[in-house]
Amino acid sequence: MPDSRTALRQQLLQARQAWAATEAAVAAQARLNEHLLALLSQLEPEGLGLYWPIRGEFNPCPVAETLAGTLNLQRSLPHAFKGEGGAGRRMEYRVWDGQAPRAVDECGIACSDGAKASPDVLLVPCVGFTRSGFRLGYGGGYFDRYMAAHPHVTAVGVAWDEALVDDTAFAPQAHDQPLMLIVTPSGVVDA
C-alpha cells in the first residue's frame, strides 16, 4: 500500500497533467512568467539553476532567456546521478546554452552536457508545496540533497497554485529542505 506522500504525489501529478492541457494553464504560465521575472530581476543572480520541464511543470526557460538578455547570467540545468542501487544519489548543475538539451541524465531527464556550474539561485519545481515552504517532489530527493550540500544558494520553488497542500497533509521529514520563496501564478509565497 502506498504511503501518504506517494498517494499525495500521484494525486497531484494526475491533476497537474490534466490541468496543464487546459486554456487556464496557458494564462497561468504567462502570470507565473511575470512574477518570476520580477523576482529574479530583484535577486540579480549571477548563476541561475533551472530545470527542464516535465509532466506539466511550469516552463522556466522563457524567463531565463529574457534574463540572459539583460543580466550577465550563467544558466545551468541539473544532471542527476542515480548511484549504485540508489546509494550515492546526487545532482550537479551544468552550464546550459539555452538550446534544446542534447543529453539525458541517469533519471532520463533532458540535461546539459556543459561544464559543471555553481548557481547562486535555483528554481526548484514543486509537485506540491506548503505555505511553510516545504515541497513535495518526485520522491528521489535530488533537490533536497543538493540544497543541503549548498546551503548558501537561494532556493525558489516554482509551482502552480493548484499544488498548494495544507501543512497537515504533508509533514516535512528530516531530509526535507525548506525553500526560501515559492512563486505561483498568484504571486510570491514567503516561506
Task: Give the tally of β-strands.
Answer: 12
Count of runs of 4 or more consecutive helical residues: 4
- The residue ranges in which pLDDT falls below 50 over 5 or more consecutive positions are none
CATH architecture verdict: 3-Layer(aba) Sandwich
Radius of gyration, rounded? 16 Å
Mean pLDDT: 92
Instruction: Report, as a whole number of angstroms, the end-to-end distance.
Output: 32 Å
For the biggest sheet, the summary is: 8 strands, mixed
Please state the structural category.
alpha/beta
GO biological process, one term: tetrahydrofolate interconversion
Organism: Aquabacterium lacunae
Cofactor: Mg(2+)
EC number: 6.3.3.2
Give a written overview of the molecule.
This protein is of the alpha/beta class. The chain has one domain: Rossmann fold (3-Layer(aba) Sandwich), CATH 3.40.50.10420. It contains four helices and twelve strands, in the order ααβαββββββββαβββ. It has helices at 4-19, 23-43, 61-70, 142-149; strands at 47-49, 74-81, 90-95, 103-104, 110-111, 116-117, 121-125, 128-129, 135-136, 154-158, 181-184, 187-190. The strands form three sheets. Strands 6-3-2-1-7-10-11-12 form an eight-stranded mixed beta sheet, with helices on both faces. Helix 2 packs parallel to helix 3. The longest helix is centred in the N-terminal third of the chain and has 21 residues, at 23-43. The chain is globular, with a radius of gyration of 16 Å. The protein starts with a helix and ends with a strand. The relative contact order is 0.18.
